[in-house]
Amino acid sequence: MPKPIKPVSEMVRAARARIEEIETKDAIAMVGDDDVVIVDLRDVRERQRSGFIPGSFHCPRGMLEFWVDPQSPYYKDVFSQDKKFVFHCASGWRSALSVATLQDMGFEAAHIREGFSTWKDQGGPVVFPDHNK
Question: Domain 21-118, what architecture?
Fold first, then answer.
């Protein structure tokens, strides 16, 4: 008989208990703040379909640890900035796990508690990719 796996919902709950969570309305107020980098962890297809937060940096979830680690060959300079990093996904589950992992790496970050799911409904600005470029 296969060993039971730990439900991802328990992992998200444990991550949320130890990371900084930001409510959507507070995250909306951060758009355009030069001291904040909003990082979108969603898949490129999600961004194309639903739009994205203006000025957000796209970092696919699968590359996160590699892009943040300065010793990785995939490192991205954006993560060397002395700014507040606020991550989001669609519903807050992927970003909660991601921020907990980053915290374990020694990288300080927060996430938008409900993700992009409530962004538009609460008046958050959304842009769509320009497919003509």
Answer: 3-Layer(aba) Sandwich (3.40)
